[in-house]
Design brief:
16 strands, 25% strand, single chain, BirA Bifunctional Protein, domain 2, 12 helices, 29% helix, OB fold (Dihydrolipoamide Acetyltransferase, E2P), alpha+beta, 5-stranded mixed barrel, 461 residues
Length: 461
């Protein structure tokens, strides 16, 4: 007999004479002559109650059916007289699939701290909070793909291993097959000449440059995959491995870019509210009391838009003491970003036209010679959610910018070739998927929206 997921059983239109349910025991309550089991299989937030009568042939195993144990029950799906539940299972057959030592199982029926649950990341998906978080993560990923599919974008796969540094920051994880010790630098050439690729290789920090190449032939593309930053940063907003959503669009400028970023953000948030109601309700009730109002505001209100220069003026005029002093030319810090989104505009804001000296070489230089056509989407509670730009399509300007950033143009010959053969205006951005999940759940630490976080000194699981 085929197993029925609990989410389907709870949504059944009518009773069933025979049903098979498998799941993990959340609680067991014993009464005279029978026991109540609360079962959950991860398919939804709610549990399904199963009633096991002492007349069930295998009732003697009930003593081993403790919290955390996995069971299979066969029985009848019947209306439940209990408050808040439509159906329950009257069990006719009970099987213990996997026991859980009641003394050792760490997820007992009590509240656990996030710090404790990170230490048992292999078990935390069985909790209400993390089960909900990872179901939302799955649904958000689906929403991203659906959004771009419906708009005629092509999903492309860009390399994880790369020989280029997209950001020019140098904070990359090196990949090598050379021995960890005992490798001497040759008198001529590089130590990497004898490595697997014959040159230095790293894990990618972004799929943007390769996505640009594909956009120059396919028109509208996006990549959605893991990226890596070797930043020794232990903040709640940074991880060494995270996922990025990166669209690139040919024949587009920075206004088109801002429009796409706003539309996508609104779409995904709306999709989550419509398709993950129970899970979102948990976060609105127990994690962030202001969550629903903030998400409704994102959906219903147009995002504010200001230039970087205007944003700096607003920050200078604010009667606040900044940890990082404000002046034109600085890179905005999280405290500045959150002030603009949370306190001044009280909604998401897009800041555009940043100083060229704090942005990457590929961003299009504006006519003033001081700023580039960059844009960041800032949201309440998070700060920067999206960063992007119109890309530099002019060959001479691009080469000058690469040299200004101290990089070797020869390393980007394939990238500059795009400017030699049918160059067009184009634009794109990167959205941090984990930051999007923090936005829609109210979770404040990136380590809690990715199943197995990678941070400095932590690579368990």
């Amino acid at each position: 007999m085929r197993r029925t997921p609990i989410v389907d059983a709870l949504q059944a239109e009518e009773a069933s004479k025979e049903i098979k349910i498998c799941g993990w025991v959340r609680t067991r309550r014993d009464a005279k002559g029978f026991s109540f089991l609360e079962l959950n299989d991860g398919s939804c937030l709610k549990n399904l109650q199963a009633i096991v009568d002492e007349a069930v042939p295998t009732y003697e195993i009930i003593k081993d059916v403790t919290t955390g144990a996995a069971v299979e029950v066969l029985g009848e799906l019947v209306p439940s007289p209990g408050k808040g539940q439509k159906w329950e299972v009257r069990v006719t057959k009970l099987a213990l699939l996997g026991s859980a030592d009641a003394d050792d199982f760490p997820l007992q029926k009590k509240r656990h701290s996030d710090e404790f649950l990170r230490q048992i990341a292999h078990l935390r998906p069985r909790t209400n909070k993390y089960g909900a978080a990872f179901r939302i993560r799955s649904e958000a990923a689906f929403a991203v793909h659906k959004f771009y599919r419906d708009k005629g974008f092509f999903n492309v796969h860009t390399p994880i291993l790369t020989g280029s540094d997209c950001e020019g920051a140098g904070e990359m994880f090196r990949v090598s097959t050379l021995p960890a010790t005992g490798v001497e630098a040759p008198k001529e050439g590089s130590v990497f000449d004898n490595d697997f690729f014959g040159r230095e290789a790293n894990l990618t920090v972004s799929g943007q440059l390769e996505a640009e190449l594909l956009a120059m032939g396919l028109g509208k593309v996006y990549t959605f995959g893991p990226t890596f930053r070797a930043e020794n940063s232990n903040t709640p907003r940074h991880a060494a491995e995270f996922w990025m959503i990166e669209p690139e669009v040919a024949f587009a400028d920075n206004v088109d870019n801002m429009d796409l970023a706003e539309e996508m953000t609104k779409y995904v948030v709306k999709h989550i509210l419509e398709n993950c109601a129970d899970d979102i309700e948990l976060f609105a009730k127990f994690v962030d009391k202001e969550l629903m109002g903030r998400l409704e505001n994102i959906i219903n209100e147009p995002f504010a838009r200001v230039s970087y220069t205007e944003a700096v003026d607003l920050l200078l005029a604010a009667k606040k003491k900044w940890e990082f002093p404000v002046e034109w030319g600085i890179d905005l810090q999280t405290e500045h970003e959150r002030y603009l989104a949370e306190e001044h505009f009280k909604k998401p804001v897009i800041v555009y036209d940043y100083p060229k000296d704090i942005k990457a070489f590929y961003m299009r230089l504006n006519d003033d010679g001081k700023t580039v056509a960059a844009m960041d989407v800032l949201v309440p509670r998070i700060g920067e959610l999206i960063g992007g730009s119109q890309r530099e399509e002019r060959m001479d300007v691009l080469l000058e910018r690469i040299n200004e950033m101290g990089q070797n143009p020869e390393d980007y010959w394939w990238y500059t070739d795009l400017r030699r053969f049918g160059s067009v205006p184009h634009a794109g951005f990167g959205m941090g998927f984990e930051r999007l999940l923090m936005l829609v759940t109210g979770i404040t630490n990136i380590r809690d929206v990715i199943p197995f976080p990678r941070t400095p000194q932590h690579i368990e699981f």
